[in-house]
Structures are given as C-alpha cells and as structure tokens.
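ARCHIVE CARD
CATEGORY: sequence design from structure
SOURCE FIELD: tokenized fold
FIELD CONTENT:
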C-alpha cells in the first residue's frame, strides 16, 4: 500500500486566463459537496505561490512572469523531492500547468538515476519555448523546459537577454538537463497544438494517442500501448490537464477544446495507469472555477482524483 501525500500548488502565473489558482479550493469544495473526507484523510503541503506578480506589469512578453515561474519550479521541485525521499507518493494538485516542470525536476532530484517517462493527458502539447510561443504564457512550456529544448529551427521571436538567461535557468533547475528524453513522452487526447510543437513531436518520435483512438481501442488497450512505448523507463509521471476533457464538460478551464475525452473515459484511463508500479507521481491541473457553473469541472476532477488515489492505495 502506498502512502499518499497531497501537494497543493495554487499558482496561476503561467496561465493566460485568470482564476486557475482557485482550482485547488474548488476541488476541496467538490469533495465537501460529495461528503468526502478525502482532504482530511491524507497529509498535505501547500507550496507558497508568486501570484502577487499578476498585479505587476509583464517584463518578458515571450515568457510572461518567467522570474516567478522559476521560483515556483524550485519550490515545487523541493516539495516533490522531499515527498518521494520520505517514501510518500506525491499527488500534485496545481493551478496552471506551468509548474509541472517543477514536479518533473523534483522527481529527478529524488531519483537522479531513473529514466523518467511522461504520460501527458492534455489537449495541448505544452512544447513551446520563448522562441516559438504564440502567447508568451508559461503553461505552454513545461515539457520543452524538461527536455531542454529551445526549438530554434522553428524560431519566431528574439527574446531579450534576461528572458533567455532565465529560460536557461528554468531548463537547468536541479542542475539536471535534460530531465526527460523527448522520446519518453506520450501524449493522450492531444488535439490543439501549433506547427512548431509538431516539429518537435515528429523530430523525436513522441507518441500521440488521440481521443478518437482511445474511444476506438478502449482505455485498457491505450494504457497498455503507452506503457509498452515507455518500457525502457524505470519511473513514470502522469500529468492530467482537465482540458483533455471535451469542451462540452470542460467549461471550467482556461483553454477548453472540443472533441476531447468523456468523464468516464478519463476516469478509466487514469485509474488503469495508476495500477502500474512504475507510476511515481500523479498531477491534476488547470481547474478554473471562475469559468464554470455549479463547480462541475472541479467535481469531475475530484472524481478522477479520488478514484486514482483509491487504486494507488489498493496496489
């Protein structure tokens, strides 16, 4: 049986839409509405945020609030590292997806010799860099930072020196770069990404499993295929962005996209992954209750969270 520890990261400085910092609390409200004692059942740690930066002018247009994101990477990495070192399984609940780069750094710091695979369940590839970003939002960059990639062949911008320096620091958090080999990444439900990101996916042969493929083959077969693809990896991190769900149900997130997963499919998918012994960390992210009615997104996120943790505890 695994000991679970919750790591709460109510940070939203990496997102373009405001409100994701309230996602953690919204999930707790959902738990209360379901009369669940989930959040008192496990030890938890709140990571301090830099959300005050939202009130300050943006310094780097191609990497908005990167200074704060760098601070968050360090804090999240430390929390995740300590959690794993103390023999707990980290379940990270985060505001926006930018801090996932810190989660990945923390896993690597705790297990420097492991070969880490990533299951990225998300409508977006999050493979942009300050050189390619269409928005400058840092939640579109955690994977490129983790594989140490600038994607200079797809370059569109010339960021200033300070931005470039901080981007280098971001890639080198924990003094490990790259933290993940690009060929050890599997995308599930990916459907909204730019040609610059596609360039990296094709270049490294990252695996992409669409929502339609999941529907056709079923969660069990998709999980098997993903794990087979990552067979060389010793540890696997699963990152679940709620915008992987279809926009019909994922109103409560900053960047909803149609043709995504249904709630039941997502639940089945994640809980099947959690049965695998290589899974070393689970993250759920991008719930934004300010965009939602009846707290629906948070309720769905809570159901997925609770079922996943139940599977972890049984294993």
């Amino acid at each position: 049986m695994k000991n679970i520890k919750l790591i709460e990261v109510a940070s939203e400085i990496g997102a373009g839409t405001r409100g994701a910092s309230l996602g953690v609390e919204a999930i707790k409200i959902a738990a209360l509405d379901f009369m669940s004692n989930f959040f008192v059942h496990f030890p938890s740690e709140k990571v301090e945020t830099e959300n005050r930066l939202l009130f300050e002018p943006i310094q780097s247009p191609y990497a908005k609030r990167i200074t704060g994101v760098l601070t968050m990477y360090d804090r999240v990495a430390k929390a995740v590292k300590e959690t794993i070192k103390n023999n707990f399984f980290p379940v990270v609940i985060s505001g926006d997806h930018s801090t996932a780069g810190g989660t990945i750094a923390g896993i690597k710091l705790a297990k420097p010799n492991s070969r880490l695979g990533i299951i990225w369940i998300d409508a977006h590839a999050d493979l942009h860099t300050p050189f390619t970003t269409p928005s400058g939002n840092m939640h579109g960059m955690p994977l490129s930072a983790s594989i140490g990639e600038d994607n200079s062949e797809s370059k569109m911008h010339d960021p200033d020196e300070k931005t470039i320096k901080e981007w280098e620091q971001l890639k080198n958090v924990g003094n490990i770069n790259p933290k993940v080999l690009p060929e050890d990444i599997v995308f599930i439900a990916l459907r909204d990404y730019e040609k610059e990101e596609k360039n990296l996916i094709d270049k490294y042969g990252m695996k992409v499993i669409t929502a339609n493929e999941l529907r056709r083959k079923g969660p069990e077969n998709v999980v098997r295929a993903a794990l087979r693809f990552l067979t060389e990896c010793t540890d696997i991190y699963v990152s679940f962005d709620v915008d992987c769900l279809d926009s019909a149900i994922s109103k409560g997130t900053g960047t909803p996209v149609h043709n995504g997963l249904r709630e039941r499919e997502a639940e089945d998918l994640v809980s099947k992954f959690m049965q695998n012994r290589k899974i070393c960390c689970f993250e759920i992210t991008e719930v934004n209750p300010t965009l939602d009615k009846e707290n629906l997104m948070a309720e769905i996120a809570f159901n997925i969270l609770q079922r996943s943790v139940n599977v972890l505890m049984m294993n």
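CARD ANNOTATION: The two ends are 6 Å apart (CA to CA). The chain is about 40% helix and 15% strand.
SHELF: design records, drawer C
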